[in-house]
Each structure stands twice: as C-alpha cells, then as structure tokens.
Amino acid sequence: MENIKLMLVDDEERFLTTTKKLLTKKGMTVLTAASGGEALELLESNPVQVIILDVKMPGMDGVTVLREIKSRFPLTEVIMLTGHASVDSAIDGLKAGAFDYLTKPCDVEILIDKVSQAYEKWRLHEKKISEALFRKSMMTPRAILKEMEEETGE
Amino acid sequence: MPQNNKNHYQKLKKRILAAMILVPAVPFILVLLIGYRYFTTTLEENARFRMSRMAEDHGLAIETFLNERRTDLKLLANTYQFQQLSRPEVLKSAFTHLTEKSPAFFDLGVFDEQGTQVAYQGPFELAGRDYAKAKWFLEVKKSGYYVSDVFLGFRRIPHFVIAVVKREEGASWIIRATIDTGQFSSLVEKVKIGKTGEAYIVNQEGLLQTQRLSGPGLLEVDPWAARYLNQTGSGARTPADPEDQTRFIWATARLNDGKWLLVVRQAEKDAFEALRSMTYLVILVTVFGGVLIIGLALYTTTHIIKRMEAADQEKDRLGQQLVVAGRLAEVGEMSAGFAHEVNNPLQIISSEQNLARTTLDEMLETGEVSPGENLKEVVDCIDQIKIQVDRCGKITRALLKFARQTEPAVELIDMNEFIPTAVSLVANKAKISDIGIKQELPQETLEVKGDPGQMQQVLVNMINNAIDAVDSRKPAEGGLIKVAARADSGRALISITDNGSGISPENIEKIFTPFFTTKPVGEGTGLGLPICFGIVDQMGGSLEVESQEGRGTTITINLPAA
Predict the structure, then answer these.
(1) Which residue among B69, B177, B384, B532 is least enclosed by CB atoms within 10 Å?
(2) Strand (E) positions, A2-144?
(3) Measured between CA atoms, how close is A115 to chain B, in angstroms?
(4) CA-based nearest residue to B413, from B442, B374, B380
(5) How far is CA A13 from its chain centroid?
(6) Which helix (H) or strand (E) covers residue B140, if one does?
(7) Using 50, 70 and 90 to split pLDDT, how confident is the model at B1?
C-alpha cells in the first residue's frame, strides 16, 4: 500500500481534500485534480498508478478524460466513480478500458479495496513488462539479430 | 360524480329510446292510417258502385221484361183483326202461342171500345163482363199502353196486367194480359248481397210490388219508401233507423214509366263488414307492431347504454392509467436529477465521516483523547452518520433505478419456464416465513414479449410484497401465496394472490405513487410498485389490484400475449 501513487479527479473540492487526507493516512501518495484537463496536465509531470475519476464533471466529462488517459498513459489503471447509477455510462467506461466502477456514495473502505485491486493489476502488469525487458536484455546478440530479421521479414 | 353519471345515462337512455320509438313509429302509423283511409274509401265507393250497378242492371232487366210482354201483345194486335181474335178458338191458339214464348202469361182478354170483354182465354169465365169503369180501362184508352200495379188475384197469387190499345179505322179495341209476377219478381227477389242486402220494387204509394226479404210483405207499405221516392240513382247513406239505428246504403232505379221504383239496399254494417275486419287487422298490426317497436327500442337502447357505460368506464380507466404513467415519468425525471445531485454531497459526508472516525482512532492511540462516556457518545454519533448516509445511498440508488430509461432487451418469455425460475428466487425467503407458494401454470405455451430481467424484477417484487403482507398478518390457516398465469382473449394474466394483511381502501389508490410505503421507516423506499408499474406499462400492459383488508390481495399483471 505504501507504494501506491494515486490521483483523485473530481470537481468537488471538499471530496478531494478529505479523501486525500484519508488515503494519505493509509500510506498512499495522493494527487488531486479538480478537472480532466488539470488531471492530464498533472500526469505529464507526475505519473501515477491508479486514478479515481468522477464520470460527471464540468468541462471534459469522465469518459473523454478516461480515453485520453488510456491513450497517453496506457498502463495507468482508472476506477470510474459515478453519481449516476446508470450502468450505461459505467459500461461506456469499462469499454474504454476502465478497471472498474463505483457508485456514489461509496464507502471509503470499498474505495480503498478497489484501489488495492487496481494497484495489484498494475503491479502484475508492470512486473510482466520488466520481466520481458529482462529477458530481452539476457538474449544473445545472435538471437537479437534473428528476432530483428523476423520482424523486418514480415 | 357516479350519481351525475347515472342521471346522464338515464337522460341519454330516454332520448335514445324516444328517438328509436318515434322514428319507426311515425311512418308506421302514417302508412297504416293512409292505407286504412284509402282502403275504407275504396271499399265504400265499391259498395256504392255495386249498389248502383245492381239497381241499373236489374232495372234494365225488368224494363226489358215489361217491354217484351208489351211487344208480345202489340204483335198479337197487329197480327189479328178484332173479329178474328174475338173468336175463342183463335184467342186460344194465340194464347198458347204466347205462353210458349213466355210462361209468365196467365190469361188473355180482348175488349171492345166500350169496355166489354168480348173474348177471354184463361182459367176463369170472364167473357161478356163490362170493364167500362175500371181504372185500367180508362188509363189504357187514354195512353194506349198500361201496366197495372201488382195485385192478388182470385187465387191469391200476385199478378199485374198489361193492356195495349189497337187503333183501327172507326173503332179501337184492346188486348189485356195478366202476368204472373213469379218470373218477374224472382229477378229482384233473387238478389242477395251479404246478409242484409236486398232488392225490391215499390209503387208510387210505397206499396211493395215484390216480396221483400225483410220487413213488410207483398203489397204492404214499405216504411222507408218515402225516403227513396223522391230520389233516384246514387248510393247515398240513409239516416239511421229510429228503431234499431241501422243505416243503409242504397240505390234506386225508376221503372215502368216512373210508376215503380226499384230499391237495392244493404245495411251499412253488413256492406262494410270487410271494413270491420280490416279495422281489427289494423288494430292488431298496430298493437303488434307497436309492441315490437317498443320492445326492440328498449332492447337496443339498453344494449347501447350498457356498451356506452362500459366504453366510458374503459376510457376512465385508461385515462387514470395514463395519468399515473405520466406522473411516474415526471417523478422519474425529477428524481433522477435529484438523486444525482444528492449523491455528491453524500459522498463527501461519507468521506468526512470516515476521516473523522480515523482521526478519532488515531487521537485515541496517541492519547490526545481519553476513553470515556463522552468519547463513546461521539463515536456513536459518527457511526450513526455512516448508517444514515448508507440509508440515503440506498434511496438514491432506488430512485435512479426507478428513473432509469434503459432500452429493455425484448425476448419471448415463456410463462411455464419463467414463473418457476422467478419463484425459486424467493422460495427461500418464503420458506423462512413458513409461507407456501402454489403455482398454477397454463396448460399450453403462454408467452409475452419483454425484458426477462425486468419481468423477473416485477414478479419477484410482487412475491416479496406478498410475503411481507402475509408476514404482517400471520394468518391462522397458514400463509399461502398463489402465482397463476393464464391466457384470456389475447392477453396473458399473471396473478399473485396472498392471504396477507390486504390494503385499506384509502391506501389502494396510492400504491403506485412513488415513495408511498406502509413499511416501517428505513425498510421500504416506496419505489418498488412504481418501478413495476413503469416496466409493465412500457410492455403495453397494466397492473390491477384487488384487495380486502385483513383477507388478502390479488395483483394481476395484464400483458399482451405474444
């Protein structure tokens, strides 16, 4: 838990500060953004592992922000938070690559639980990538050449 | 309102009934009246015409008879000389010759200018008698031809005489014959029209010259004669008989140079006998037709009014359903916005509560606060906030579900599969409450079109409500819920019957109103039935509720069968 770097995106200022305090208490590193634009800007300089994203916000709406995040930071896991029990927008979110969705009002315990799951997924993913990188670095120069040939040959 | 309606239908009924009776009755009665009038006029005219014709024809026949007899005598006078005919044997052969021609000749006599009968052929010994002063002799000498009135001869047989004068150089002579009236009067006496129709002849004094069928006999005075004597021809109506009020229609013809009057008459009642039966027939037809028209009008009107009442009721019911559906849609839209807006602050409260609780725990750990009654109170308060926020969350979630406008995934749902599945979902809950669920499934396949998920939501909701109702009454006979499905003229009726607490009449109107609930605070959102109503309404169906407080409830889901 200690290592989780998380970003909260919501237009409710008080929700951001309080939740940040709570999650910080749990040992996470928490960034906050009051809008989609701000979140994307912040991500450029501060990559995170998990993002909690409100679906309905003024300006850029949640699903658009989600698509943007997924295209620019594909490894980042996003949990959608919706004030609307409408499953339709949640499904849109899931289709666009969200990890899961939660409906407001959502218990902080559940939120933390979901964040842990998302982090776990990120971690596994990250592990796979480093393993792959490791394997690649362990290959003989001949193997590398062969692989390159195969790639260009196609 | 129901009273008003009743009056309205009564008024309407009267109006339709009046129209339905009058419209056919007026032409019907008119046709009858015109027909009757036409018929009676024709009948009367016919009767009169028949009378006139009869008088004319018989008059003509009698005139002919008289003329023939006169011609007979004239021929005789022209054929023979006075001296010839004065000889009895010549007269006899002439008489025989005459009777061969007409059996009506009774006797024959020849008279000289002084009135002495010089020869006679007949049953009596009249030769040589002097008739110089006799009325007939004077008359015939004056006009050359004479027909007497009828008289009863020596033998009490009605006769009349015909005499002709033969004028010769120097002296004239006369032939006289007695005519038996038998043949002649049978011409009129034979006449019989209906029961009272008759014909007879009277002379100028009103004495009957022929036998009359009714009333006075031959040569008696006809009491009616005075009325006809001065009139001729047409068949008028007589004034009523002072004695028996009989009226006659009659016709007359003058005979024998106006000395006789042929009367043909018939009692009006008799002549118009057909008229009377026609009248009866008309009355019968009127009564029968009237009864038929009224009966038919009554039947049709009752039928129409019944249909109208049913249609109006159906209209009212549909109207109410539309109002409910419209209200629900409005409430749904509003509550969706409301729920969404409330969820954000709820989320904040939830976070705040969590932070407060976490912080308090930390303070307790670090010794910043010490345990005690006050702290317990604060912790209780903070925990209560969480409970209430959860409760609010439940309500807003239900609201959003209620308002959800998702397109249903329509499939064919077979009741024989669907009902057992839905029942199995709640079977456990029912078992815990010791309630039996009985299923009555249709014999044949019964399908409806709808979203199986939504349908399940509806049925499960209904059965849950039924379980709650049974639970709250705890019937002595044991709880029982019956879920039945049946087809009824193109509809699928799924009914859920329980023997639970029932719904009071004042509540039954509100059960589809959002947030209306009789359950304890916090247990029901009051959105279950409105949601079901919305789903069923979208499927083109309706929900019908019948309930008796303290006895149980039946909810019927009425859907179009697929």
Answers:
(1) B384
(2) 5-9, 29-33, 50-54, 77-82, 100-103
(3) 15
(4) B442
(5) 20
(6) helix B135-143
(7) very low
Bridging pattern class, strands A100-103 and B158-167:
unpaired
Q: Could you give the count of Cα atoms lying within 13 Å of A144 in the half-sphere of its Cβ?
A: 8
Whole-prediction pTM? 0.47
Smallest Cβ distance to B400: which of A22, A84, A105?
A84
CB pairs under 8 A between A and B: 70
Q: B243 to each of B218, B229, B239, B287, B465, how far by Cα in Å?
A: 22, 21, 12, 36, 97
Residue B456 exposure: Cα atoms within 13 Å on the Cβ side? 17
* Pairing outcome for strands A100-103 and A77-82: parallel
The shortest C-alpha distance from B513 to chain A (Å) reads: 22
Residues B168-178 have pLDDT tens digits of: 777 789 999 98
Contact A83 B351 (CB under 8 A): no
Find the helix or strand (DSSP H, E) in which B249 lies.
strand B248-255
Which contiguous run of DSSP H or E holds residue B201? strand B198-203
Which range, of B229-233, B369-373, B410-414, B472-476, averages the lowest pLDDT? B229-233
CB nearest to A12's CB, from B344, B386, B393: B344
What residue type is B50 in one-letter code? R
Neighbours of B311 (CB within 10 A): 10
Q: With a CB-CB cutoff of 8 Å, which residues 333-372 of chain B face chain A?
A: 336, 339-341, 343-344, 346-352, 354-355, 358, 362
A84 and B344 in contact by Cβ < 8 A? Answer: no
Contacts of B562 (CB under 8 A, 6+ apart): B412, B447, B448, B449, B492
Cross-chain residue pair B406–A88, CB shorter than 8 Å: yes
The count of other CB atoms within 10 Å of the CB of residue B208 is 21
Higher pLDDT, B101 or A141: B101
Enumerate the residues of chain A whose CB falls inside 8 A of the CB of residue B348.
12, 14-15, 18
Residue A69's pLDDT is 92
Write out the H or E segment, with its range, that includes residue B437. strand B435-440
- Neighbouring CB atoms inside 10 A of B313's CB total 11
Q: Please write the tens of the pLDDT for every residue from B498-510.
A: 999 999 888 888 8
